[in-house]
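ugh ok so i messed up the first submission bc i forgot one of the chains. this is the corrected input, ALL of the components this time, i swear. 425 residues overall. if the numbers dont match what u have on ur side tell me asap before i send this to the collaborators (the ones from the other lab, u know who)
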Amino acid sequence: MKKEWPLWEVFIRGQHGLNHRHVGSLHAPDAEMAINNARDVYTRRKEGVSIWVVPSSEITASKPSDKGPLFDPAEDKVYRHPTFFDIPDDVGHM
Amino acid sequence: MYAQMVKSDGPSDAELSPEERAFQARIDAGEKIEPKEWMPEGYRKTLIRQIGQHAHSEIVGQLPEGNWITRAPTLERKAILLAKVQDEAGHGLYLYSAAETLGVSRDELFEKLHSGKMKYSSIFNYPTLSWADMGAIGWLVDGAAIMNQVPLQRTSYGPYARAMVRICKEESFHQRQGYSIMMKMARGTEAQREMAQDALNRFWYPSLMMFGPSDKDSVHSAQSMAWKIKMNTNDELRQKFVDETVPQAEYLGLTVPDPDLSWNEDRGHYDFTQPDWDEFFEVLRGNGPCNEERLGARVKAWDDGAWFRDGLNAYADKAAARRLAAKTAAE
Ligand SMILES: [Fe+2]
Ligand SMILES: [Fe+2]
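and heres the new structure output, hopefully the right one now
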């Protein structure tokens, strides 16, 4: 038998209630072992309180060539940021 | 270094294509290259060789230290060494994952290591004869690795750079635990002090060899540096290592085994003796003191674990089939 263990993407949530973050990938025969391995590989120094694993083959990624159409439209919409608007100091904190 | 004398496949003197020129411009601008993006075939191949060799070094590098886990002098030292060696396994895994994003599988890389087609660092072909060697390895070998890995956090290939950030966070513990062993030994009994000195004597030149021979005139290095997958010349890093390490040896009251070592006021650096490069090439050729033993242990672990890997696969397949059957029955 010569079958490589499938690849999993690992996501960890740290101590302080932030989102799960992608930390890397690993090989494991199934989801349960992927979690066990992720514990050993990615949380040896208390980096997390929760682990997600997802088969890498299940990830759909945007194409590098779509960078322009996807992200350029945000470029000229600076008014989405609060600093775009000048509010006089007299108004106080806003 | 952990990746020594990596051959790079650059475009020779031929003209750069428009794609290659745009690629180089991105690198010059400090942009990261990510897995699915266009890259020259030479960049991809060179990186696979370099990251693969680096990963192999982390994995094989566990062996000389693993040798002493059961013989550590105290339970605490044993737990620390175990944690250190476990980190190295992790470093190997991060790096294999980074290599895999370039379209090579981990098993392919293992196969190349086991068949001798790919190398690991020359340093791990030296024996570990006493407990002081655990000190010397952490202090000198991990110390030398850090010299090279810190700048690689800024390398152009995203997954490689991210793996390096993770590794560097853990590496400083390795060096300090080694130095702490050296301090203990150097201030211990006369016999312990002698062991510490002996370990330094044996590991000094092999550590200098880790950076590889001078490459200031090497075409491969020039290409790799243009691609930012090599950040400094071997000589620069070696000099930096000597400059930082000599005072640390003095603090321990140990003597660096180089009678010509001296501070050069004009250069602002230490002058030192080069290691024996013939020995280095012999070790690379497979004729070091422990090449056979190291690769043998690695291949044996892989072969002996085959039934276990297959068993877990069979279990996973069976569980998946059972889940599928239950789902179909429910529909
Ligand atoms: Fe390491
Ligand atoms: Fe290390």
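quick check: The two ends of chain B are 58 Å apart (CA to CA). that seems consistent at least. Residues B 88, 142, 145, 171, 174 surround fe (ii) ion (ligand 2) (CB under 6 Å).
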